[in-house]
Amino acid sequence: MGLMSGKKGVIFGVANDKSIAWGIAQQLRAEGAELAFTYLNEALEKRVRPLAESLDSSLVLPCDVQNEDEIVAVFSELEKHWGKIDFVVHAIAFANREDLKQPFSQTSREGFRLALDVSAYSLVSLTRCALPVLNDGGSIVAMTYLGSVRSVPAYNVMGVAKAALESSVRYLAAELGERNIRVNAVSAGPIKTLAASGIGGFKEKLRVAEERAPLKRLVTQEDVGKSALYLLSDLSSGVTGEIHYVDGGFSTAAG
Length: 255
Ligand code: NAD
Ligand code: 0WE
Hints:
Number of helices: 7
Number of strands: 7
Radius of gyration: 17 Å
Bound molecules: nicotinamide-adenine-dinucleotide, ligand 0WE
């Protein structure tokens, strides 16, 4: 009997086997959860489908969160297959590459809108569409980063988007508490994933994180997966509206 046996849910944000969403999926499956996955586009479908199958899942659905109809379609498919679900994982972020390089004040209106739409508003939309099919005791987890509360060089508009995401977590938690549905976020330290590749100075970011963190090491997809498992399971039944740091203690340490 696993922590998640009898529970079903959907994971948004697997791109490949380095994705944080994949680290979460593996932990959930190891504890008996039944999983569905979404993918952004056909190129990623080729990656995600075999990964899903390796965790005994054949529910693999397209979803670009900029498209409301695709979000609605995901939850209607889930309802057809399963009836009710127990959890949702949001591990999605996007900003224009140039907005993570140029000075923050140069961010265009469209770049700002895009980053906030994909990285923050999408949580509100996923939650709204999930509500009719979420069981009592349901749990929603999103991924965030310290750049929401501190100005991290080059994180720029993504930091603003993560601030909106974290605030959305609190407002959704406040609203859904009376239905016994919990909403939390995991704030992870830097991890080398697709979304982190090609970011100038990321290697340096990893080096500083490793050196300054009390645990003296980087966090892994497994570390994040285990915390997400806790937040998605009944072990965290009294926890909602929280931003849970999984960063080796980095954010708690000075110099
Ligand atoms: P990743 O590239 O593996 O995952 C990002 C995912 O976002 C991809 O699966 C991509 O397809 C998806 N995505 C982008 N635009 C989308 C859209 N319009 N519709 C649907 N999906 C879309 O990278 P990751 O590092 O695993 O990122 C997952 C989450 O973790 C993100 O929210 C990210 O901000 C957060 N995070 C990452 C780190 C890190 O250092 N890697 C640290 C803290 C938080
Ligand atoms: O949230 C993120 C990254 C999100 C991200 C990454 C990309 C790269 C490719 C969003 N949009 C894009 N757009 C692209 O075109 N992280 C927490 C990882 C990350 O990104 C940084 C970091 C860290 C940590 C960018 C600058 C500084 C630190």
